[in-house]
DNA sequence: ACATTATCTGGACGGCGTACAGGAGCGTTC
DNA sequence: GAACGCTCCTGTACGCCGTCCAGATAATGT
């Protein structure tokens, strides 16, 4: 301490740091959901006027980007760094670590999928995953597609889970969520949706982490099978209407 | 036409219908993104005062729910209804139909994953998918988990894709999106992220629909393998920190 | 000491979702 | 047919949001 920081700026000393602002934003996010993390709320929490925040971030989107970056930076890389373990165990460890880490701040999940994740921490995470898949013996193309698949599953799964319990505040414990889900689904008319009702009754015995891992294991199995027999993509009728709309122009 | 509708309400005739409001909301969504679909904007487009909308919907969330329901209701069920075809082809047809349908309104994707999809059309879709998986020979529990896995993949994949090109308006054609992606990724410093850069270079040759199908095929393969050898879930270290937080209370 | 520049403030603008009160249209009931 | 009562739409307003502008203040470079 007491190390006098060299100050390059000319004006008065800053009252805060970017990190303090992100801390306040994260607290508000955890307490009151995404709506509570407003510029004015953040400013009030750190004790400055609302527009003082614009000294540190150019606009709210930058604050959100910083928040996402901070959260992704907190992911523990050690739990899947051991290259001696089988690759699917390492992927599973990564998936569980990410899930645990992101579920601790459910309000941030919509912010993540709301914009591109291209910050340095996001890229680092992607890089680690690609390295992991390369260790597993996948070629560059398959590794890239497999990482995309895994990322979609991990983030999509958490996003859907958060969406189902979208009240602000921390996620309730898993048992409670399962119970609420059971109640909600069993309220669906079994006459109109017999299989949904049956599925609800069956699924109620499974905690959602187990369900999460089931899907992850199917994906890992599919990737492993692809690795074993790398046949080409079958003849598929690509009917991407999105691309067709502006065809024949230009 | 000219069928005089019986009017049960006592007051003056309604100037609009719920559908007109949803039409206007969808138009605004397509033109200007999620932000443009405001209550005031919708009201202006249909030519009423902003609060007149509250005659038809109790609040904005209800409008959004109606919008999501309308979009899900527009999914063509015929493309995967043929029970004579192999089940994985039917799932693929469903996935492609959903992708094409939702990509036509990218602004709506954040609205879908922003809240639970529990409307009648959403349940119908889930019901069809469960039926499809039951036709494939999966038991109720596996069918439920497999449908969850597929739904996560389809919606998560579209959501991430939309997030990467989050400017309002319709999605650009696929070739353009791939080019933009290539440019963005190749701008990542190859020194810090060598594998990401390599992946970007490799992936640039693949259109995103192909990538989408690659992941889908891995999932289908994983499900099929599970169907063939239904071994139990392996011994997995469940470390759900979410559930642990409130343990030992109550 | 002076000029320069970064920082924070009060105030304001336009937009949002939405609540409240009032007036006008229309079916119901005497 | 006239009065009633319900329904719809409007004007207005409140509190919130993100963000900009002008001004005061504090620190640095010269």
From TrEMBL, chains A, B:
This is Transcriptional regulator, TetR family. PANTHER family: HTH-TYPE TRANSCRIPTIONAL REGULATOR RUTR (PTHR30055), TRANSCRIPTIONAL REGULATORY PROTEIN (PTHR30055:SF151). Residues 15-75 form the HTH tetR-type domain. Pfam families: TetR_C_1, TetR_N. The keyword Ribosomal protein does not apply. One of its GO terms (biological process) is negative regulation of DNA-templated transcription. It comes from Geodermatophilus obscurus. The lineage of its organism: Bacteria, Bacillati, Actinomycetota, Actinomycetes, Geodermatophilales. The keyword Transferase does not apply. Keywords: DNA-binding, Transcription, Transcription regulation. PROSITE patterns: HTH_TETR_2. Residues 38-57 bind DNA. GO terms for molecular function: DNA-binding transcription factor activity; transcription cis-regulatory region binding.
